[in-house]
Amino acid sequence: MRRLDGRDGGGQPLRTALALSLVTGEPFEMTNVRGNRSTPGLKAQHVACVSVAAAVSNADVEGGEVGASTLRFSPGDVRTDPVEAAVGTAGSATLVCETVLPAAVAVDAPLRLTVTGGTDVRWSPPADYLRYVKRPLCSMFGVEFGVSVPRRGFYPAGGGTLSLRVNPAEPTPLALDRRSEPDELRVYSVESDSLADAAVADRQVEGVRDALAEAGVDLPVRAAVSSVESDSPGSVVVVVARGGDGDERGGDGSESVVAGFDAYGERGTPAEAVGSRAAAAFLDWLRGDAPVDRHMADQLLVWVALAGGRLRIPAVTDHVRTNLDVIRSFGYDVTLRAAGDGDGGAGTGAGPGADSGTGAIVESDGGR
């Protein structure tokens, strides 16, 4: 049994451990789960991740309840019967989906998952990030999945529904160490019906456009604006940087660009400021060399371990370090080094600890 310390890194080490346990069939024990958080132990969304992983793998679980600080997870055979999970209130449905995506390498038939809870809530990827950033990016290295959002769920009530279909996959090594420049931005701006009279979604797009104009960035912007039914009022904007056709390698050997940046509406914050915040994250990324955004960098580490290859990340964060610790604990040989001039970067930035510049390279031969 793998022995893990979950004190650092929040819920990501837990999700990574669950994913790798599904793939390898190896049990683990994690102590001090989320130990450095103000409210340590499992929260509702983490319990949902455990429950879904257990259902998919017929696992025996000890300590899988809210507040538990120690979890023992012993998987059985992975199965593909449809799985349903209720996170409760506005716990993140997208993070539950993230937990089971690596099961693509362990199934021989499509895996179907339906999650109710928060589809668009702070501290987690919005549903449109999963659909329009993660999905096409994973497709580049042979991992295919589908996502639908029958109903949106905002904080605090949640009540949204997210449906996921994961196809069996034999991923190819990642080649995400060089970046083409983006040639367009796509903006997905969503508001609850209760905010439609205030044109919140349209104003979020205006905020994106104004921030780009102020920064002197002249890129085509294609916007999709929608009003949706939801149990709680809320809004979200996702800015997607794209280059090439977005789903195949660029002609110079670099990958086509698919990177995403998001912001959530908040009471008292003008919608234009929400859009500007998402645009600011894009502009920060644009000053560096990494082909992926900093949140995607953390999510792709497990795929570097499983499939091999090279990934340039914009920054070496605490999340990256703790996530790599868990991956290595399962026996995967993944290396991390500062990116240099010979790695194809063109930035002038501040090194692997910064959000811009050359960042760092994560690489692996794949497997253990």
TrEMBL record:
It catalyses: a 3'-end 3'-phospho-ribonucleotide-RNA + ATP = a 3'-end 2',3'-cyclophospho-ribonucleotide-RNA + AMP + diphosphate. ATP binds at residues 295-299. Keywords: ATP-binding, Cytoplasm, Ligase, Nucleotide-binding. Residues 185-286 form the RNA 3'-terminal phosphate cyclase insert domain. Residues 343-368 are annotated as: Disordered. InterPro entries: RNA3'-term_phos_cycl_insert, RNA3'_phos_cyclase_dom, RNA3'_phos_cyclase_dom_sf, RNA3'_term_phos_cyc, RNA3'_term_phos_cyc_type_1, RNA3'_term_phos_cycl-like_CS, RNA3'P_cycl/enolpyr_Trfase_a/b, RPTC_insert. One of its GO terms (molecular function) is RNA-3'-phosphate cyclase activity. The keyword DNA damage does not apply. It is an enzyme of class 6 (ligase). Residues 9-330 form the RNA 3'-terminal phosphate cyclase domain. The keyword Transmembrane does not apply. Belongs to the RNA 3'-terminal cyclase family. Type 1 subfamily. NCBIfam families: PRK04204.1-2, RNA_3prim_cycl. This is RNA 3'-terminal phosphate cyclase. It comes from Haloferax denitrificans ATCC 35960. The gene is rtcA.
